[in-house]
Design goal:
Bound molecules: nicotinamide-adenine-dinucleotide
CATH class of the domain at 1-105 and 262-367: Alpha Beta
Distance between the termini: 21 Å
Structural class: alpha/beta
Radius of gyration: 21 Å
Largest sheet: 10 strands, mixed
Order of helices and strands: EHEHHEHEHEEEHEHEHEHEEHHH
Length: 367
């Protein structure tokens, strides 16, 4: 049996709490012989700054590059508000994303029947929702140059951000999305604003050509990003995989997130190119949520997003969809049994973080 190497970076705040529950799931998978893991642990964020004076050390960076996949909890907190900008906790996360060249951000939005009433939309609109937003993560207007605020001669200032995409950047994110669509429903929606932006014209043209050339079996449709925002809150279930740029992906994935109830439910994956040494894509898996300093240390964190991030690692790095399905089924079973952490309990009873993790492990063993 293959051994899967994971580099665990629990980070700050609730990160270590939700990572501890994820480690229970890893141990359960090992315990029943489903998989074998080699785990290493490191520091990122404020805890790394406290230990090394950096948000991630060179040694831990090398371990992240060497592992099959990185699992990260969360970084940050008020304790580090005063540290120099280049060493702030988020710098560790940004360094990982940059040096591992993680350009594809996968954000699933799943609405479990047991939680459909927690959504702000009507049950029938979101019940059973299962969609995936693929966001380009390293290009576009967040990084394009020039990017500056300059003084104007007559007074006032001018701010410039530059939306820029090259064909190869669009193609490589397109490939990730087409391949995902192929493994799921065979449908892909691409989104831009070609009606007002030339980067949208190139995006549309490149994705269309890529689809015709290499993915003719995938049904491709296009939506303008503003119209897609409306569709996502009207008929979200008509979409399966959505691919879009950094800016629109940032907004649309947050819209999709809120369809599902709590931020504590949402895992994510960030993928890069295939590493010729391992044959696997560079990969970092993490919850969408932050370090939640307001609840850290109180056993109130929902470990679902972190455990779901392990599930995504099993599916996308190790090609073990069977284990990812088992993890997801265990989470769904636990929710169907009525187990809730405080964030999804409405006014009902709730379980502490560790009990929720134990319930997922019990459901995993029972399956
Ligand atoms: P947050 O996601 O940490 O918390 C937002 C709200 O959601 C809080 O009320 C929190 O209690 C709740 N919440 C978050 N995760 C939860 C979980 N698993 N279970 C139950 N409730 C949960 O965002 P924030 O409060 O804006 O930021 C807090 C810190 O986290 C800041 O330092 C911020 O910079 C950092 N941050 C880190 C990441 C990351 O590591 N990727 C992402 C976002 C924010």
């Amino acid at each position: 049996m293959d051994t899967y190497s994971l580099f665990l970076l629990p980070g700050d705040g609730i990160g270590p709490e939700v990572m501890a529950e994820t480690e229970k799931v890893i141990a359960a998978l090992e315990g029943d012989g489903a998989a074998r893991f080699r785990l290493e642990r490191g520091l990122v964020g404020g805890c790394a700054y406290d230990a090394h004076g950096e948000a991630i050390s060179d040694g831990d960076m090398a371990k992240a590059q060497a592992a099959d996949a990185v699992l990260l909890g969360a970084v940050g907190g008020p304790k580090w508000d005063g540290v120099p900008y280049a060493k702030r906790p988020e710098a560790g996360l940004l360094r990982l994303r940059k040096e591992m060249a993680l350009y594809a951000n996968l954000r699933p939005a799943i609405c479990y029947p047991a939680l459909a009433d927690a959504s702000s939309l009507k049950r029938e609109v979101v019940d059973g929702l299962d969609l995936m937003i693929v966001r380009e993560l390293t290009g576009g207007v967040y990084f394009g140059e020039p990017k500056a605020i300059t003084d104007l001669p007559g007074g006032g200032q001018r701010a410039v951000d530059t939306q820029v995409y090259d064909t190869h950047e669009i193609e490589r994110i397109g490939r990730v999305a087409f391949e995902l669509a192929r493994k799921r429903s065979g449908r892909l929606c691409s989104s831009e604003k070609r009606n007002v932006m030339l980067s949208g014209v190139l995006w549309h043209r490149t994705i269309t050509a890529l689809g015709a050339r290499d993915y003719a079996d995938v049904a491709l449709e296009h939506h303008l990003a503003d119209a897609l925002g409306m569709q996502l809150v009207r008929h979200p279930k008509r979409f399966d995989v959505i691919v879009t740029d950094n800016l629109f992906g940032d907004m649309l994935s947050d819209v999709a997130a809120m369809l599902t109830g709590s931020i504590g439910m949402l895992p994510s994956a960030s993928l890069g190119d295939v590493d010729p040494r391992t044959g696997r894509r560079k990969a970092l898996y993490e919850p969408v949520h932050g370090s939640a300093p307001d609840i850290a240390g109180h056993g109130l964190a929902n470990p679902r997003a972190m455990i779901g991030s392990l599930g995504m690692a099993m599916r996308y790095t190790f090609d073990r969809g069977d284990l990812a399905d088992r993890i997801e089924a265990a989470i769904a079973a636990v929710l169907a049994q009525g187990c809730r952490t405080a964030d999804i309990a409405a006014d009902g009873p709730s379980l502490p973080t560790a009990a929720m993790g134990d319930a997922v492990v019990a459901a995993l063993r029972a399956a």
